[in-house]
Design brief:
Number of helices: 4
Helix content: 10-25%
Oligomer: single chain
Strand content: 15-25%
Radius of gyration: 25 Å
C-alpha cells in the first residue's frame, strides 16, 4: 500500500494475524472512518507490542476486532461493497469500501521439489555442521527454504548461512586458491557509482 491517504475517511477491513496486518491496523486506525481487523485465530503471530496496541485500539472503540473468523466471500459489481465472514458457524455480511488481505506467504518449493533433493516437511535438508550443502554435490540451500536440527527462521540466520555457503562455493570453484576472509572495513566496498568506499585509516601513537 503505497498511498495510505487513499483510505482516509473510508470503511476498511483488514484480514490477517501477522506483523503486516497489525502494523497497518495501527497506522490506518488514524485515517479511516471505520476499521475492522479479522483473524482466523484468537492469537496473533506479530510482535507483542503491536498486539497490545491493537487491543488498546479495540478497547478504546477505535477499531473492530473479530476473532476467530474467516472471510468467505466478496460482494460487488466492478467495485467492492461488502464481504461475508464466518465466525463459529455463523455468517455475517459487513459493508466496506476496501478489503486488505495480509495473509503472508505460502512456502512452496515449486519445480525444485523434483530435483532429487532430500526434503523434510516441504523444506530442503542441509548439512548445517559443514556448509549448508544438500545431498546433491554443489547444491546449497539457505534461508527459510532449508531445514536442519534447531533451525531458526530468522533473517540473521539466513545471512550467516549465506556467508558460509559463499565460502564453500569459492573453495569448490578455486580448489588451489587459499581463501582469505576480509572485513569490509579493511578491504572497502565498491559503490554502485563505481567508486570505492574505504574506512578511514587509524593508527596507534607510541610514546
Amino acid at each position: 500500500m503505497k498511498r495510505p491517504e487513499d483510505y482516509a475517511g473510508k470503511r476498511v477491513i483488514i484480514a490477517g494475524g501477522g506483523d503486516s496486518a497489525l502494523d497497518w491496523t495501527i497506522h490506518l486506525a488514524e485515517l479511516t472512518s471505520s476499521l475492522t481487523l479479522i483473524h482466523r485465530r484468537n492469537e496473533f503471530r506479530g510482535a507483542l507490542d503491536s498486539v497490545e496496541k491493537v487491543r488498546k485500539l479495540k478497547h478504546e472503540g477505535r477499531i473492530h476486532l473479530i476473532t476467530p473468523a474467516e472471510v468467505t466471500d466478496l460482494q460487488g459489481n466492478g467495485k467492492l461493497v461488502a464481504i461475508t465472514i464466518e465466525k463459529e458457524g455463523v455468517t455475517e455480511t459487513i459493508e466496506t469500501d476496501y478489503f486488505i488481505p495480509l495473509f503472508g506467504l505460502v512456502p512452496k518449493l515449486g519445480p525444485i521439489a523434483g530435483w532429487g533433493l532430500e526434503l523434510e516437511k516441504n523444506a530442503i535438508k542441509v548439512n548445517n555442521a559443514l556448509d549448508y550443502s544438500t545431498n546433491i554435490p554443489g547444491v546449497y540451500a539457505v534461508g527459510d527454504v532449508n531445514t536442519y536440527p534447531y533451525k531458526m527462521k530468522l533473517i540473521l540466520c539466513g545471512f550467516h548461512e549465506a556467508a558460509i555457503v559463499c565460502q564453500s562455493i569459492y573453495q569448490r570453484l578455486n580448489p588451489h586458491k587459499k581463501f582469505v576472509l576480509k572485513y569490509t572495513t579493511v578491504s572497502g566496498v565498491d559503490g554502485f557509482d563505481g567508486s570505492r568506499k574505504e574506512a578511514e585509516k587509524t593508527g596507534c601513537n607510541s610514546y
